[in-house]
Amino acid sequence: MNRLIIKALGPLIILVFTTCASHRGVYIVDLTTKESPSETELILTATDPVPYQDMKLGSPPSIIIRFPENRVFSSDIDELVINKGGVKKIKYEYSQSEGESRYQLNFMIVELSQDLPYKISNSGSSIIIRIENPKQSSVVSPKEQINIELPVQVKDESLSTQLGYLIGPEDVLSIEVWNHPDISRDVIVNHEGEIRLPPAKINMSVMGLNTSQLEEKLVETLSKFLIEPVVFVTIKEYNSHRVIALGETAIGMYTLKRPTTLVEFLGQIGGPTENADTSRIRLIKKDGTIFTYNINDLINISQKRDPVFVSGGDTVYVPPIVMNKIYILGEVNSPKVLEFKEKLTLVEAIAKAGGYTGNAITRSIVVIRGELGSHKGMRLNLSRVLKKGDIAQNIELKPGDIVYVPRTFIADVERFLRIVGAPITWYFWYLR
């Protein structure tokens, strides 16, 4: 038995001895932007050179900078709204150990205004991201902008469809007050659902209004300062009603521009794949409530009862017919999706992912089991397998398992599953 244990653990034990036991922290000290007519440049400066991996997402268009090896820290993790060239905003995925004032960065997410070419290079201890600016037409008046841009914004949708869209946080609105360019401007709806028009000192709640209702509300408010104001409101960017699609379909984050049924949503993103189990499609609501639907039933009886709608914050999960994959994520040297073909243990799976990094907390590995929305987690101590030969901790994995190797100790697994939903989604996109 001892020989079998040693044989099974051999690749991982070798990796442990060849991995550096600790890493000196690297700190982000500055993030600056430079804009030229042709490109926007982001310069991320650290105390030392920072190894990184980059990838591009299509929906929403974003550049993901991942820090897989070094312990990269920052004291500032606020989301930055840039709105320069092709760059909309920058945000971070991070963790923080109890009692520490610094934040450990896992990802930097650069959200773009549209799908744009980019190049990344190193210069000393800086990472330089050069993003090509979107091509712009010649400058026109605000009124002409509305007439020209509206068909592009709503594409083949009618104006009445746009007027039915309910405004929410992070939407960008174009507000034009006729003959008052000092008040007219683009505004971003904040997280409380409010907008601000500084020249008129207006602070107004717009949550749940459509453009027609907001125009009426602005006319009523501006009438206190102006004579018979004429107000036009259009939605420049739809950002508040986003739905995540996972599983056997086109994985991504999609923005709803009108009331959309579950059947319509799946059709718009290309539908389920050939390997999808369409009889168990899950709609996971923002509050965590889970509904399971047979897509054929929804299509056949859609005229006999109220249709099922998707809304902002929902996740649509299309399960495979057979869950035959295992995901190895987190602090491993080579995150992988493994085809499940035969017996596979926890140690063997981590070894296939290149072993764990020097940042890994091996006594707090979490195995997530079950389908998305109803999964459970178990914490395992890999250190006891390596040091004491505790084979009870070296469990056999099952198809569909997610092995997550953390960089901080996880005391409460249930709380961990609630908190890491978004980061694990990013991992799924990264590994797809």
Please explain how this structure is put together.
- The chain has 432 residues and is of the alpha+beta class.
- The chain has four domains: 26-132, Immunoglobulin-like, CATH 2.60.40; 142-237, wza like domain (wza like fold), CATH 3.30.1950.10; 242-318, Outer membrane lipoprotein wza domain like (Outer membrane lipoprotein wza fold like); 325-431, Outer membrane lipoprotein wza domain like (Outer membrane lipoprotein wza fold like), CATH 3.10.560.10.
- Helices cover 21% and strands 34% of the residues.
- Strands 1, 2, 3, 4, 5, 6, 7, 8, 9 and 10 form a ten-stranded mixed β-sheet that branches. A five-stranded mixed β-sheet has the order 17-16-22-19-20.
- Helix 1 (2-18) runs parallel beside helix 7 (346-352).
- It is globular, with a radius of gyration of 25 Å.
The span between the termini is 38 Å
CATH architecture type of the largest domain? Sandwich
How many distinct folded domains?
Answer: 4
CATH domain class of the largest domain = Mainly Beta
Outline the low-pLDDT stretches: 1-23, 137-163
SS field, number of helical segments:
10
Write a concise keyword list for the protein shown above.
432 residues, ten-stranded mixed β-sheet, Immunoglobulin-like, wza like fold, Outer membrane lipoprotein wza fold like
Please sum up the structure shown:
By secondary structure, the chain is α+β, with helices and mostly antiparallel strands. The chain has four domains: 26-132, Immunoglobulin-like; 142-237, wza like domain (wza like fold, 2-Layer Sandwich), CATH 3.30.1950.10; 242-318, Outer membrane lipoprotein wza domain like (Outer membrane lipoprotein wza fold like), CATH 3.10.560; 325-431, Outer membrane lipoprotein wza domain like (Outer membrane lipoprotein wza fold like, Roll), CATH 3.10.560.
